[in-house]
């Protein structure tokens, strides 16, 4: 007979109850049955674990040794069983998949991949500007997956149970009014734009503004930023000819603005997919990454400026999957 976890539970139950009779009642056993099992355990471990007295059962020195180890082992075993049970229940039949995203072109592709792989699940999405709240939601179980993004030197700290899967690191491009004097150039220099008025995200947990400033500091230029905006509002300010800005390489040009690469590729942006290690998407990770990778490559082709840049820099921004 080998020592089993249930044997350690029996020893702890007897010590906790103080007698075989009370321990048998708590374990749902008969007192003779528990006595027989204890004798088998003692034979296996090489000696008596309890002194049987009229007033009850007290651990022997060998019993104290076994109890010390059992009380150290059993909480970890119980936690393991609880975690695996929770993971199995999550993966078995997810009724709802909650997805979050920063402003990036991968959300639609992730949603399509999830719907294809888990057709019976209800899929919902919500967007945030910064990745930190999405990571918090993933760690707390409020989201099953998320599209994240960061910059060199700004990689997020690990969250317990959250798996991060970088997809690609791509260059950051300039966003100009269509009538801007530099719009006819194939690429523009960052230092050449430093004298312009800028529209930029407000400095917050996204840290985009911080990253832009750190790169500008290398040029000894400090651009003026009279307009703080994100998303559609930022685009409208640029379209009106009031400012220049930066954008992701996969940004699709709309009337009134143009996208141009920056000479020397001084700024970069990393796309990251994330999900919970114990969540229902973990076992589909490889398939999700392949589908989102295909979607990303299609987004590259839909951006003329980025497509031209990729032809000039083969392999420089290749998806990792």
TrEMBL record:
Coiled coil: none annotated. The keyword Transcription applies. Keywords: DNA-binding, Transcription, Transcription regulation. Residues 1-60 form the HTH lysR-type domain. Belongs to the LysR transcriptional regulatory family. This is LysR family transcriptional regulator. It comes from Streptomyces nigrescens.
